[in-house]
Amino acid sequence: MSLALNNGKAFVNGKLSMLNILIEGKKISGISKKRFGTEKEIDCNGKIILPGAIDAHVHFRCPGFEHKEDWFSGSLAALHGGITTVMDMPNTKPATDSRPALEEKRAIAKDAMVNKDFFVAATNENLQEIAFIPDLRGVKVYYGSTTGNILFNDSAKLAELFRLSKKNGFVVVVHAEDEETISRNAKKFAGIEDASVHEKIRSEEAEARAIAKLIELHKKNGGKLHIAHVSSRKGIQLIARAKKTKSGKNLTCEATPNHLFLDSSAYKKLGNLVKCNPSIKGAVHRKALWKAFVKGTIDIVATDHAPHTQEEKAKKYSEAPSGIPGVETMFPLLLDAVSRKKIPLKRVVKAVSEKPAQIFNWKTKGLIKKGFDADLVIIDMKKAFTVKNEELFTKAKYSPFNGQRLKCFIAQTIVGGQPYG
Ligand SMILES: [Zn+2]
Questions:
Q1: Which amino acids are annotated catalytic?
Q2: Which of 275, 326, 348, 414 is deepest in the core (most CB within 10 A)?
């Protein structure tokens, strides 16, 4: 089947131009100023066309936590947020830490409406097995504990993993928080049930210590290091400095919309709903992260979509799980920031499409280009919408951005040539 997207402004070669796009099967087969006459056509009517977002950090919770999310609800939510590819984290039950577990997860997700791939968790026992998993894009390291408790922070083992990354080409993606610091702070603040204590327990120091250690190990052993969800000023400063060194060319990092758009003032209003790991911190941290994002020190933005039920989140602070859903709001929040002239569109497209494709080796994704996959989003930048909990497709049915009016509207998402919406 062929499909033409006519009369839109497509993001091609780093800028928006009046260009029509021809899709044949799953691929982009033509880009032209001339209108394509095909059996099926979408009249974009002046809307913009961007490459679909590649979300390199989601928790779609299967197997084991289907009550929180599954691949149907998760991918439907992703489609509504303009995300066409997701990379799922391994802290499921069972954890994705072996080849059979990876195969089981692949089978569960096979009917997802978005493209997907999976991270495998590093454990003290599985490095030999990881070495022989073909086409692995990334290995997840929980340097500090979080949902799932798959701790991996032994220096010798990490060194071995970096050497394996150098040999096999996969990316070592790290949740960088120092366990010792977190436990010490947890003892110090035990008994406090106000959610804002989360920032004190999962502190800037906890993140900075872990990042410093990881940068050192990476420098010594090589391979590719990607620091997930950076949340603090010190953390991003350490990364910025390390990026200027020789090993810095294989060092990348990510920020989530939670850390870019929220700060600790949110605890008062939203309590445990904004409890996530690493914690949301003060405004100085949010500002430092935003600056690093605009500058490009932060390579990619990913959601860390981590849904829990509202009942689970309603528990007291010490018992409520950490995590915030985000696939439906990431792209709209970023495009709204473009509308408000806080960041250029080019920078956003790079952070959600082009760069994640490069880092995680999606060779035919991330750009609107002839021969590339037809993963596209049609967006109306003139229309606004309000984020509403009850209209979300995630099973979690809440967003910290509930009630916020955003200037942009995701009109249609196309995955592998198939239009949704
Ligand atoms: Zn995560």
A1: 304
A2: 326
